[in-house]
Amino acid sequence: MAKRRRATHKDVDFDVDDAHAGSRSKSFKRFDEAAAHAVVIGVSTGKATIDVVVHSEAGARWLGGADGVAQYREDPEASVFERIEIKVKSLGRVP
User: Could you tell me the residue ranges of all domains in the chain?
Assistant: First the structure.
């Protein structure tokens, strides 16, 4: 049986930009919680952004393995490791 990865890492944050609420962002330690919040923002505004912030090589390894570490080493001072944009489009009522 494969080893299960922890749901959080102390050196990884998921920040959801809430431009609708005055460009504030809310930080989460778990991706699933950030994604759920982003969908709620997206429903009311049309889109939301999740910024994945990695603070160390250990965090990069947890997130993306050896490829994550290589990406982190390319620019360890980057403010955002990865940006995910979520777009939401209401299709109205379905009969």
Answer: 12-87
